[in-house]
Task: inverse folding
């Protein structure tokens, strides 16, 4: 048995039962990283000594009988836009290439306090702006299933690390699909929690009304266990919902237990999610997943959702407007990249030089788009309009989820494209987010599950969207589906 | 997209796609504190034009009586007790700055 093939809960169970020690598990994962990451390039930073020291400490605590989380001692990775105290957090950008945060993100803190072992930080599209992990200053991550394909993004490093067995699980962030889409491309399970379920403290901001931290793992049960550890109110983030209005951790933990059922669940299958541009193999696999859930006892019925295509414009106008404001803090003076050896006309000129040199082309493009949408004369027609369409979209999803417990559809229109094929046309890249952005605009939770492979062996994902803070039903459905199918157990040959 | 919808945005190129007016792109770049070179300005005119052209699919939607949504959740005012909490020493953050001296940020000289 190779340790890197185990799920997080399986490995956690073996560590708790003294079958495998935390240092042994950590060494096995570090060996795997050494063997495969030259090809996959999932990590921007690996910290072997720190990980082994942490593992030894966790083992000592377990040996002393301390009560830690069920995933104690399990080695994991964190996306490099989530702050880690004393450990470089680059956001895949030249702007923050040497930035070392003095604090942990709350989500990272909660995992580490529960006994997680941090292996390193994973690659991403610069500032999480992209869906291919090709725009990182640290280079391109490849898809473990085919090295000429992208892993998806922006949490492409996290997804690829889990798929390649280089991390048992990983944290990612999802602003418009950045957990679910790479999970789909890499054949792993990814969960975007409800907006407000997990604290955003320490997550480097992109679109603040859309960003959420969530898990990528081998199974839906793992995702549930990780989410239970990181969710909950946080005095450092006023948008993390208070107890009582946040998700029910007890119900969530119950949903990961074996022997779940989907009997009685009503699942809607929106016709608009199967429109033009959907790869036939993706359609077939997603329809088969819906049929499988029906066979397992759920009621699956067709339904309609409004504004699926308009979601793209709505999302990109809001996300880039928020990004243009959030990224205004990078001025080359307070922290981050600072140009040297040039003459400047004034401070504004210095800021412009620092930002033009420190940000990559896609980040600059999005800042421009967002600045335009917020600028005088265009604000009402673009930004305000998008905020109003967002309301219509929310009403549509709310109405659909008053009739259904879950909605089912594809995660992405295609399987993973070849490296270098989407960056040349930014609009085409944006359109690929069609099925994922709605969950962010509405704040609803979304789960991406492996559900098949295309003709050349690339993974396909199916997406489930649930009611706000009802991750328990999402995870329960995922666990039931994965008990009946084997797609999530397939691994790439590396 | 027809030119008459937003005549102030730019012109249509030979393929019939919107190209943003370079003066507008320069103005936005100045607001964004970015300084694209001439080649980048030209690319941005085309790319942003094409993107905004597509985004006009939300223009026709009836939203006159719709309230804008700034946030996905119906958030209450979320406040914590007004109590003094330990925080970081100023020096911790000063160490993160590219240049500092005697507890102050250093900026480039802009006056002679």
Result:
């Amino acid at each position: 048995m190779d340790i890197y093939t185990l799920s997080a809960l399986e490995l956690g169970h073996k560590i708790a039962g003294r079958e495998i020690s935390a240092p042994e598990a950590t060494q096995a994962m570090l060996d795997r990283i050494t063997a495969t990451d030259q090809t996959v390039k999932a990590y921007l930073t690996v910290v072997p000594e720190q990980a082994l020291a942490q593992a030894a400490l966790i083992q000592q605590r377990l040996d002393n009988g301390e009560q830690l989380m069920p995933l104690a001692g399990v080695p994991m990775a964190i996306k490099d836009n989530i702050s880690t105290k004393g450990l470089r957090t680059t956001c895949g950008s030249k702007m923050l290439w040497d930035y070392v945060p003095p604090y942990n993100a709350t989500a990272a803190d909660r995992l580490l306090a529960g006994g997680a072992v941090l292996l390193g930080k994973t690659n991403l599209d610069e500032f999480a702006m992209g869906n291919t992990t090709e725009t990182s200053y640290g280079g391109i991550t490849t898809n473990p299933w085919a090295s000429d394909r992208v892993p998806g993004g922006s949490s492409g490093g996290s997804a690829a690390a889990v798929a390649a067995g280089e991390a048992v699980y990983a944290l990612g962030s999802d602003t418009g699909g950045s957990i679910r889409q790479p999970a789909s491309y890499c054949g792993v399970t990814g969960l975007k929690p409800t907006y407000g379920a997990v604290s955003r403290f320490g997550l480097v901001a992109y679109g603040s009304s859309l960003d959420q931290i969530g898990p990528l793992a081998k199974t839906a049960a793992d995702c549930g266990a990780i989410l239970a550890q990181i969710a909950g109110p946080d005095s450092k983030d006023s948008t993390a919902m208070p107890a009582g209005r946040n998700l029910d951790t007890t119900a969530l933990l119950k949903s990961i237990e074996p022997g779940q059922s989907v009997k009685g669940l009503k699942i809607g299958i929106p016709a608009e999610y199967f429109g033009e541009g959907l790869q036939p193999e993706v359609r077939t696999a997603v329809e088969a997943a819906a049929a499988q859930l029906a066979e397992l006892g759920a009621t699956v019925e067709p339904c309609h959702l409004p504004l699926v295509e308009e979601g793209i414009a709505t999302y990109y106008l809001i996300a880039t407007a928020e990004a243009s404001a959030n990224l205004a803090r990078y001025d080359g003076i307070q922290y981050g990249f600072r140009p040297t050896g040039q003459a400047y006309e004034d401070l504004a000129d210095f800021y412009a030089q620092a930002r033009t040199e420190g940000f990559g082309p896609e980040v600059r493009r999005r800042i421009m788009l967002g600045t335009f949408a917020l600028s005088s004369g265009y604000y009402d027609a673009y930004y305000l309009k998008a905020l109003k369409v967002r309301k219509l979209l929310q009403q549509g999803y709310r109405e659909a989820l008053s009739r259904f417990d879950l909605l089912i559809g594809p995660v992405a229109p295609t399987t993973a494209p070849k490296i270098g094929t989407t960056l040349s046309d930014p609009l085409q890249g944006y359109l690929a987010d069609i099925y994922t952005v709605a969950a962010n605009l509405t704040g609803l939770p979304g789960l991406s599950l492996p559900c098949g492979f295309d003709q050349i062996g690339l993974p396909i994902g199916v997406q489930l969207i649930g009611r706000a803070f009802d991750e328990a039903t999402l995870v329960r459905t995922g666990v039931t589906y994965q008990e009946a199918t084997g797609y999530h157990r397939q691994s790439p040959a590396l | 997209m027809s030119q008459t919808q937003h005549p102030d945005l730019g012109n249509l190129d030979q393929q019939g796609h919107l190209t943003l007016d370079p003066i507008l792109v320069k103005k936005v770049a100045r607001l964004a504190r970015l300084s694209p070179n001439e080649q980048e300005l030209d690319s941005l005119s085309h790319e942003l034009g094409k993107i905004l052209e597509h985004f006009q699919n939300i223009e026709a939607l009836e939203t006159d009586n719709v309230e804008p949504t700034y946030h996905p959740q119906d958030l209450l005012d979320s406040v914590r007790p007004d109590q003094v909490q330990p925080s970081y020493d100023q020096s911790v953050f000063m160490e993160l700055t590219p240049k500092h001296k005697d507890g102050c940020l250093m900026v480039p000289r802009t006056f002679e």
